[in-house]
Amino acid sequence: MLVILFLLWVLCVTALSLLSLPDLDAGGVEVPYSDKIVHFIFYFGFVWLGGLALYAHVRSPYPIKKMLFWVFLAAVFYGTVIEVLQYVATAYRSAEWSDFMANTFGALTAALLLNRYLSGRHRLN
User: Fold this and answer.
1) Does the global pTM surpass 0.70?
2) How far apart are CA 73 and CA 91, in angstroms?
3) How far is 54 from 85, CA to CA, in rounded Å?
4) What angle do CA 122, 48, 117 make, to 5 degrees?
5) All residues at 6 or more sequence positions from 122 whose CB lies less than 8 Å from its CB, including other chains
6) CA-to-CA distance for 31 and 95, rounded, in angstroms?
7) Would you say 48 and 110 are in contact if contact means Cβ atoms under 8 Å apart?
8) pLDDT (average), residues 106-113
9) What backbone torsions phi and psi does residue 23 show, to the nearest 5 degrees?
10) What ranges do the domains of the chain cover?
11) Distance (Å, rounded) from C-alpha 65 to C-alpha 63?
């Protein structure tokens, strides 16, 4: 189930990143850096769901940190490919370094929190 949820997440991120969407009206409310927040959430979700799916599927003595490192690298690579595709394949999207940084920071945050969670260090004493 987690694998399907992860794949649906990736499909949704891909579609929202590459398709032309009309400007959404937020009722006159401006949220500063909302684009970067969305990028952070997209790649946080990528690593969180991908890490949980891989952890549930592998369930071997494979080190959690190594597994999360590979999921993190996959997210960064995927984010890079999406940014390049926005630059090359669309006329209505642009590639930005700040988007890449928000993607990477979201992926890194999820990897660090998921490592803590899966390692069992999340319990309060």
Assistant:
1) yes
2) 28
3) 27
4) 10
5) 116
6) 21
7) yes
8) 97
9) -60, 130
10) 2-15+33-118
11) 6
